Fold this protein.
Amino acid sequence: MEYGKLPISLASYFLLVAALLVANNYAEAFAEASIEGSSTVHRRQRIGVKVKGIGGSRKTSKFGAQCGQGWREQYARHHSAILQSEPSRQRFAVVELHRNGLGDRLTSAVAVFYYALLSGRAYRIDWRGVAGVPLTAALDKPNIDWEVGPGDAPPGAEGTKRVDWFLTHGLHPPDSPPFQFFGGEDIRLQWRDMRTVVMSPNTGVVDKLFYNRFHRQQLFAWGLRPETAVGCALDFLFQPRAEVLDLVRDNFMALSEPQALKIGIHVRMGDAWLKNKEYGDCNREIDYEDLGRWFRCASKVEEEYRVEKISVHWYVVSDCFTLRHKAAKMFGQKVLLPNQETVTEHMDYRSGNSTRDLIAFRTTVAEQWLLGMTDFQIITEESSYGRLAALRSLRFRSVYTMRSAEAVAERRRNVSTWECTRENYDDFQEVAVNQPWVKI
Ligand SMILES: *[C@@H]1O[C@H](CO)[C@@H](O)[C@H](O)[C@H]1NC(C)=O
Ligand SMILES: *[C@@H]1O[C@H](CO)[C@@H](O)[C@H](O)[C@H]1NC(C)=O
């Protein structure tokens, strides 16, 4: 039996995707397909997804509908005006991203983006330390040029304020500076005379911003909500490059199918496995007590939401490459399988082969993006990667977090009877705030 074969023909898939993209007036899709009627041809098919600047054409996309009005265009104009003005009048907010994995980095990127938006500074990303691969190798800049320039924060220059709120153990007590600052101060007044503010966080603060009495009204007036703010910022800032979507083209097409029920499953086995393979173990079975929980949850969600004659896709993302194949063996072809050229590695891991490292980074970005295209997300507690994807999906009541028995008990539930029913979803507080060290 061949797993991962798409249930309807490739041609129909392509038409579906094209129709979706054209209908949204969102992107141009083109394909160099040679459809020969062979069942294996989809492995060789190359789909290029070319994405245009998205300025005013987003009205019919879910982001256009849920991300409010005005701020996107206004800020994009303001941003490019700052870049063009004389140096002494420029104001920058730079986020340094050189710690932790992709989830925490993009979480930090979003936090500082809101600082830039609310303080009227030009937002810039200083991306470092990922096996020599720049962020722009995976993500395009659809609306503003966020790539840091050499003149933004010259070393040793006066007029640069460095803010490093990184805490080694990752735990931010409620009275620590980032929470006070984002939650309680007028962001426009802080460091007003500084040309550049460089922030170096590894956590998120979006929830706090919506309680900030100086900015709360503004955010709501723009049409943003705590539940949508992360997804809207990610959509405004980033667009995966065509090469990135091409790596996962079969899965991208399946998840673009508007009618299908798409269930995302993120199983993170942990840094011990990915960064340090000698010590970690990913050779685990999908047993009842442990890994089986993610898949039982997916089955329950499917039972709750399935509509007759509609296809169901399970999109499994894991730092353990073999898990998707194991899942496909157990649950059949609804489990989407990766294209062969994807590479699963932690961002910090260097293989010594720069082509491989580039593909690994693109795979990490691509899979998170695709996880954000699912209707439901069954995620791992100790990870921001899945949480961020869930927030980018702009779905509500869609998240189920797999927790330890203790963490379940803290929520006054019993792990042996708890199920992924309609009413047991995790709300925004659970997704973004309550975990002691994974905050979005
Ligand atoms: C480097 O990685 C690429 C992509 O995985 C692979 O095709 C190539 O054979 C590798 N090169 C070497 C020298 O191992
Ligand atoms: C959890 O549920 C199981 C099965 O109903 C039961 O045996 C167990 O005592 C419960 N545990 C707690 C802490 O309530």
Residues 343, 353, 355-356, 359 surround 2-acetamido-2-deoxy-beta-D-glucopyranose (ligand 1) (CB under 6 Å). Residues 62-240 form a domain with the Rossmann fold fold (CATH 3.40.50). The mean pLDDT is 84. The first strand starts at residue 28 and ends at 32.
